[in-house]
Amino acid sequence: MKESPKFPPLYHQIVEVLKPSAAFLVGGAVRDLLLGKPIHDLDFALPKDTILYAKKVADQLNGDFYLLDKERQAARVLLKDEQKTRLVIDFTTFQGESIEEDLLTRDFTITSMAMDINKDHQIIDPCQGARDLKDGLIRSTSDQALQEDPLRGLRAVRMAAQLGFLILPDTKDLIRKSSNDLLEVSPERIRDELFRTMEGPNQAAALMALQVLGIYPVVFSGDFTLYQQGVIRVLESFWSLLQEEHNPDTASNWAFGLFVHRLGRYRKETQIHLNQEAVPGRSVYQLSFLSLLVQLPAKDNQELDLFLLRFSSIMGLLHLSNQETDRLEKSIRAVQAYRNLADNQLSLPPIEVYRYFREFAEAGVDGVFLALALLLAEEDKTSLQSSWPNQLDTARHLLEGWWEKRKQWVDPPGLLDGNDLQENLDLDPGPEIGILLEQLREAQVRDEIHNRDEALDYLKKVIQTKDSPE
Fold it and tell me: Which CATH class is domain 136-218?
């Protein structure tokens, strides 16, 4: 097979380092190569010296090396190209005496193919994966494949959703039989596979398949409901609409068409926002779907607090980072705050935009879209006709403040600091200084203060008013 332009930019440099090792490109990269899809991650199988060559790749290409499993000689290297695009490269040692024996131990036929990097990209396919790839089928390589690693069931569902393939009935049965064995799989491995599923597309379909196959209740200690499916489908549509210029199918839908009309101006900003990573390799885009897995409408703050306790325990099962957990909890609280604003404000003044983002920061952007998705999934068509335009106006005001008028509405320039207040207003260090500075920022947002002198005069009057007898 000829070299494909679908390879990542760093591929040829990696291969030059690996040529003496007799390595093979394996797994999803070979599958995507045969499908003509861009290859984003690379997996190499080596007969020996796996850790040595992984370190060589990291050293020579300025990457980060991670030892995944010393006993099984598994390692990972993270690289970035000139465009700062991240490339994940996994290295494993043959399971068996040859690459053919190794492939027979793998999970599904369409990922049990290898390419010899030293022999004009010759494809090795002992499990007839190319045939199943052509037919759009996901087939287990053996009856033992799911018993050996029950996480493969989750992987099958991800591939089916992302490729539009069919999981064969016999393979479905094997997945069901092994689902309870997921309790013995490390939370980190489940988390990583779930995040790959949340890369999309068809996240809702994948999660529903996990429910049907008995995997979802094991992972999340609950069921994936039709309501949740509806909400996630809406969120899928939102992100799709904000990542493409025009889609006639969705534009013909009144609610989605109005969504694009009011918020489509923020396509570029939304894409940048979604690509942010709370931790390396896990994006805001992926997190946004997780926040809806157990999201329920909260009637008040007390009910919201109870919900968040349950949410934290479920997310804890996935061993998320503190940054991710904090981001998710803030985005959920932001949903409630957004609803209060949209329900009670005909016109959203800048001070409300400031207070919203002061509490939630970037998670407030997540909250805007999550709230809209929940509303669209909950409302019937009649009530939506009257509420949807106002909801989108609230969203537009908030996003305008965050992305267009940040310095005016969200983060006004600092005119004074604590030392200024101590020196010019004869104040002692303490919480009063923070309270006064916050009052000053709100006055700036209300366009009452524009420079340092006005700021000092304003705070003097605030102090005088506070100290004067009633």
Answer: mainly alpha
Hey, is 91 helix, strand or coil? strand
Question: Is 192 in contact with 250 (CB distance < 8 Å)?
Answer: no
Residue 69's DSSP bridge partners are: 74
Averaged pLDDT, 117-134: 90
- Residue 415 near residue 448 (C-beta atoms within 8 A): no
Residue 80 is classified by DSSP as E
Nearest C-alpha neighbor of 455 from the set 470, 467, 439, 466 = 439
Q: What is the pLDDT of residues 380-395, one digit of tens each?
A: 777 788 889 999 999 9
3-state secondary structure of 448: coil
Per the CB < 8 A criterion, the answer to whether 190 and 154 are in contact is yes
CA 131 to each of CA 109, 125, 157, 161, 302: distance values in angstroms, whole numbers, following the listed order = 9, 10, 19, 19, 56
Q: Is 159 helix (H, G, I), strand (E, B) or coil?
A: helix
How large is the greatest C-alpha to C-alpha distance in the chain, in angstroms? 91
At a CB cut-off of 8 Å and minimum separation 6, what does 393 contact? Answer: 262, 348
Lookup: tokens for 276: 């942010």
- In angstroms, the Cα distances linking 270 to 226, 239, 335, 368 are 27, 8, 17, 12
- The CATH class, in words, for 1-135 is alpha beta
pLDDT tens-digit readout, 196-240: 999 988 999 999 999 999 999 998 888 888 888 999 999 999 999
What Cα–Cα distance (Å) separates residue 2 from each residue in 45, 64, 122, 123, 166?
20, 30, 9, 11, 29
Torsion angle of C-alpha atoms 284, 287, 288, 289, degrees rounded to 10:
140
Rounded Cα distance, 45 and 108, in Å? 16
Q: How confident is the model at residue 355 (pLDDT cuts 50, 70, 90)?
A: very high
Pairing mode of beta strands 122-124, 282-283:
unpaired
| DSSP category for residue 38 | P
Sequence-distant (6+) residues with CB within 8 A of 287 are 198, 278, 324, 327, 328, 331, 366
Residue pointed to by tokens 């009144």: 254
The model carries a pTM of 0.86
What is the distance between the alpha carbons of residues 59 and 53, in angstroms, rounded to a whole number?
10
Q: What is the pLDDT of residue 391?
A: 93
Q: What whole-number distance in Å separates Cα of residue 208 and Cα of residue 374?
A: 18
Cα–Cα distance for residue pair 55/53, rounded to 1 Å: 5
Q: Are strands 74-80 and 86-93 parallel, antiparallel or unpaired?
A: antiparallel
Q: What is the mean pLDDT of residues 328-335?
A: 90
* Alpha-carbon gap, residue 60 to 302, rounded angstroms: 55
The structural domains of the chain, with segments of one domain joined by +, span 1-135, 136-218, 225-410, 418-467
- Decide: helix, strand or coil at residue 44: strand
Torsion 250-253-257-259 (CA) sign: negative
